[in-house]
UDP-glucose 4,6-dehydratase (Papaver somniferum), 655 residues
Amino acid sequence: MASPGADSYTPRNILITGAAGFIASHVANRLIKNYPNYKIVVIDKLDYCSSLKNLLPSKSSPNFKFVKGDIASADLVNHLLVLEEIDTIMHFAAQTHVDNSFGNSFEFTNNNIYGTHVLLEACKVTRRVKRFIHVSTDEVYGETDSETDVGNPEASQLLPTNPYSATKAGAEMLVMAYHRSYGLPTITTRGNNVYGPNQFPEKLIPKFLLLAMKGLPLPIHGDGSNVRSYLYCEDVAEAFDVVLHKGVIGHVYNVGTKKERSVLDVAEDICKLFNLDPKQNIKFVDNRPFNDQRYFLDDQKLKKLGWQERTSWEEGLKITTEWYRNNPDWWGDVTAALLPHPRMTVVGNSNDDTYFVGYERKADDGNKTNLKFLIYGKSGWIGGLLGKLCKEDGIAFEYGCGRLEDRRSIIEDIRKVSPTHVFNAAGVTGRPNVDWCETHKVETIRTNVVGTLTLADICKEHGLLMVNFATGCIFEYDNDHQEGSGIGFKEEDTPNFIGSFYSKTKAMVEELLKEFENVCTLRVRMPISSDLSNPRNFITKISRCNKVVNIPNSMTVLDELLPISIEMAKRNCRGIWKFTNPGVVSHNEILEMYRDYIDPGFKWENFNLEEQAKVIVAPRSNNELDATKLKTEFPELLSIKDSIIKYVFEPNKKT
């Protein structure tokens, strides 16, 4: 344990990224055990090489909290920093296997550079973090001369030679820039190879151990002369303990050892532990595209802070071997990782993806247990009501964390949730109304058009039905559909209202969504609910206005129709639907009911469209939609007036 001194730093609330991975889990477990007064929040997206079992020692600790999530989600990161009052970040999350980087280099850029950038920007915006410890690698220095006995000091030039180390160097440049430009309190570490219990067997030592346990040959890239320095995981965890408490802001610290071993030496040592003949059990295979001969670090700077390597190679290898002997199935089926040149997918599931966070399915209850909804629009009115309905009906659901326009984050949501259906209740409608969209056109396009199309396309790729809450405010009364005629717009009619930019974007995306046969589009209009305190409720809106126009319109009573949307998902309904109650109701008729049921003294005035136009920016849509298609599918559907009385005014009636 680091002994805090007069100049030491004492954190309160620490966020550790990638904490279900190998090194970070050892660091997290150490800090949680040794510093019970520190709150440790750990985040991990549970990729193929991470496991919540690595955090089992901390599971019952009161100062431990696990969050399953991706650091590339800016909303999630900002939320966590504020909610958990984070003052310290230890950033371990990264893709680290060099072999994978030759085949999936773009994913390394996304994880290692973009993920780091999101964290740095969140620190800049929230202004809460007092220490940001960025975990890098010795590989950013590039190859060390094989003849030198002087290790790379922290001031050495960065000369990465493979896609992995290049992304780590790029992340370091961002860390440096945010320190210099914004004064972020950053510290960077660059470490040698680490080994020990819990390590995913794509790495050299656990791979060799598992192969030796099976009596299989140990594959060595090239001639095996490549030299590496190996540190035992608990020594490395102690090093981060020291850096956390004693590291100086703006500095870089090498975490290394002078004790080097060639890959061939490692293989021979493991053969000896299993009484295997190295000549018979070592197999030389093709080298990878570029394999640095040597990484060698100057480790004096960290030692001056008080850290020392404690575990000898022989002792550490013995402990590690015993652990893998006792836990051969820790990682499940790792056949692919044990290949000489593995190409593990960097977006694959952890084999214990639901180890802590899974839910237990109850006994069959109709078809509910076969459903799991992924809902976008948690903070929105309809999205919130959908979640409430699912809870009441016993339907499993989760809210999406990704932004609709961010394809990668949506794919990650689907990977984590494994939904049967996706509901899109997210969208820009304006703050507080559609007039906002007139001056925020790019933001409106990004969410209403790009985001919706991205979600539809990803759902199609994954064979998922997307229920899309759209709008009926893309029509207006015309010669063929006159006010009071009883002739409503049908699903196949072409939108004719372009008075507001909001309506333009909704009509635009609807036209494009016709190409996606996996989408069920529900055209909602002037939504109403029994919650008369909600400012988004159309009844609440007009009851708070001094003057209202008096025009009959089609409307949607959410209390009746949202449960129908869930039933439509179950029935696999697709295409376009007018999602309104049959018939129309005028504004005056609604306010008369409001007066009769809620407030006998309520009064209001009318004004015409010309007068209304003087107090709004964008014109409003007024129309009647033909709900015959929906009524045919659901014959019990009430007319708009009857539905308002049953679901809104009767429950709220003042006696």
In short: The domain at 13-195+228-258+289-311 is CATH 3.40.50.720 (Rossmann fold). The longest strand covers residues 131-137. Confidence is low (pLDDT under 50) at residues 344-369. The radius of gyration is 31 Å.
